[in-house]
């Protein structure tokens, strides 16, 4: 450090003799959920090159750094793992699709598609974001599932249906609080109970839903029993 004298002759803040500076280069952009702002924002993905500085002037390369994600609003830098968190829009779509898939799986396992079950399923799907979902649409989709090769209708959760449940729920589960994961399972349970007690096939489907949502077996059993008690 070199001392610097102010106008009054007193020592001011010393000038930094040596330091480092990073030059950032944009390599991509998009939209992400900014942890700093707490909402969806545009971002730039940056890579950087560090240099030693002498009196603030870059002189020698010191290597690369990054990549990082820079929020276009708050300008803060975050690790690229921030991009793993879905945007609010994407999260809403994932949740909507998850509820829809669970509703169809439970209806298919029930085997009868009674009016009360269809009404409960349609109400859950509409609440999740499919505002124009009707009982008739769900019934038609369940019939299509039954007619599709390799599908199982009114029986235990087959491999194809289990895969679809995991595809819909696995990416969502890490971003849901425990109460959110339990809520999806309870919605499926209420659809199953709308026309009477659980069938073995419905229990099997709901167990698969619980596993995909990373809910332990004991908690799945507890929640399925809790759903039987009117709130």
UniProtKB/TrEMBL annotation:
Pfam families cross-referenced by the UniProt entry: TerB
Boundaries of every Co-chaperone DjlA N-terminal domain copy: 97-222
SUPFAM superfamilies referenced in this protein's UniProt entry, alphabetically: TerB-like (SSF158682)
Name of the protein: TerB family tellurite resistance protein
